[in-house]
Structures
1.
Amino acid sequence: MFELIGNQLAYEVLKLDPQSALGASVQFFIMDTLKIFVMLVVIIYLMGLLRAFVSTERVRTIVVGKPKWMGRSLAILLGGVTPFCSCSSVPLFIGFVEARIPLGITFAFLIASPMINEVAVVLLIGILGWQVALLYVLAGVVVAYVGSMVMEAFKPERWVEAYVWDIKVRQTQEQQAYSGGIKERHDFAWNEVKVIVQRIWLWVVVGIGIGAAFHGYVPQAWIESTLADAQNWWGVPAAVLIGVPLYSNATGVIPIVEAMLMKGVPIGTSLALMMSIAALSLPELLILRKVIRWPALVLFITVLAIAFMAVGYLFNAIF
């Protein structure tokens, strides 16, 4: 349906040539904009209803005092069901620190939250298929679990800024569940839609725009000679380096990955780019620097960059 609407508007209404770069880009932009925003509203509303019954704050308190493997798993689960971008994950990261949850578990949440969320997963299924979505989720869980264990081994508590230990994080609406009836829960879910869409719409549009430009204007020959060749060892590191200065969440970067895959870029290279944009964005690192000192920040960047490259190489080798 969305492809048909895109074809009608781009080729019938705007009279663009289907064979031209502009025509292909505009058709892709219209199709993906409609598809992603419709799915966003529906998915966020449904997950808002779920969160009206299960408070993320309650999950956070459950993590306290549990064995590390269980706490780490719960932190990743919490990160996976909270549709936060990398920057908005930092305040809850501070809440974990204030609650004296071990930093290894805290970093598991910080890694998983921007990388894995239900909105991105459903969008991946709808746009790229359940196989790609499953691969991405599995890779994200492994990266969050193993990466947080590596961070923990370096005892990062010594690098947390002193003032953070004294911060008292005030509960927000996103961390609470409504205890009212159907109307109150509907209001909560609809407010989730408005707040989250308002927070991310620009980055989604930017991501769609980049994906459309990539789809229409980047020559196939260049793709095949560079990123599309899985034998080029530098393709995966290049994807990670390109992703760091770009700020988006997993939802906003999906159209870029879609365009890359359509151009023949290997799945591992595409996932490495997606992960680096979602979990290693420059704005997140600047905010995180206010919480942890340089040694911990450099360690965080290094661990994730190596993990993303490992995922990229692995998936390129398998597929």
2.
Amino acid sequence: MAQSLIAALEYAGVSVDLASRLQTRDGRGQDVRQREIMEAAKTEVHRLIAEGRGRAWDGWVTYHNYYKAPDLIGPQVAAALNIPYLQIESTRAKKRLTGPWAEFARSAEKATDAASVVFYFSKRDGETLKRDMVLDQQLIHLRPFLNRAEIAYGSVCNGPILSVGMMRHGDKLASYEIIAQSLALLPQDGWQLEIAGDGPARSEVEALMQPFGANVRFLGQLEDDGINLAYDRAGLFFWPGVNEALGMVYLEAQAAGLPVVAQDRPGMQEVLAPNTYPSVDEGAQGLAKMLELYLQDQTLRHAKGAAAQSFVADHHLLPQAARTLREGLAKAGLSL
């Protein structure tokens, strides 16, 4: 996503410097580690102020400031250089102001307070940002987007079901469990499933799919060309989306002209084309019903896939993202 944001800014006509490679994330909530990072950030601030003066930066943009990885340098550098400070995909988490990330959470909150403009992807994040926003701060909804300017291909929706997801324990494995439960409710002929992905939970995923035998094919981890071919030959896309924040695979699948079978979850609502999706309460039964409906009707698959592709083309590509970013830069006082 960070690379896509740089591409969108450049598409909007902005010259982008990657100012720092300092990694501030502490995933374990370790006080000693956080103090080490904060000391390193102080040194980085001094270096960047000097560099910024030499390069005449016009503004500073920080991506993904949150309690585990606060922006410890941007606000100070922007203030010293007297340039606008903006954030993209920042989150507020007041409950983290106590506990193992308390100091980092305070730093993240302080950094967001300093931003004149905050772009948010998720409407849920937008709600908390609005709740805690400071005076005169601008909040702008930036729709999640693919790093491409147009859609160049589309599936004829006459192939296998496709699932794409890393094989990690936790939420990803939970989605695979729901996939297996749903497949068990289908007739055991007339469908094929291809799975793209790999990871530490692969053996558990393979065990879940073992009852379906040759109906399930594992593709492993695919690079861009491979995953595009998988989308191209698929008939529909199936991923329940347990606790997905944004679900970028849904945008990829829909851009390929695939209808999507997923549960109606908050993160999905940001990226899925308008349709009726089964609720979480309906469980595997609701997903199996939707799968059967699509499996029995290629015309429906193609129509829904075409509508999904148009949805992505209209709202979730580089030109739309660049337009939104330009709007925010202007509100921060930056002219292009």
3.
Amino acid sequence: MKIIGVTACPSGVAHTYMAAEAIRKACKERNIEVKVETQGSIGCDNYLTEDDVKSADGIILTKDIDIQEAERFKGKPVIKAFAGDVIKKAPQIVEKLVQYLEQNK
């Protein structure tokens, strides 16, 4: 299974990167392949390629602000959450996405 994500917040600083790290940690604890793009104050880091998106089973997006180029995820299962919730509850958010993916194979 592969999960990708994009995190961003209004200031584009701490919460953007903390949310990305929380997703990475929660996925690694479950042995789930993961890649997370950050859209922060210094620009986009770890950009998700077309191949990353095609090979992803599901996607986690923060919804504090609009994600740039969100149309590239059309047709993929997506969970949206506030960056603060992702930081605090990443394992539960990952679990929710995994359960959805398993039920909708």
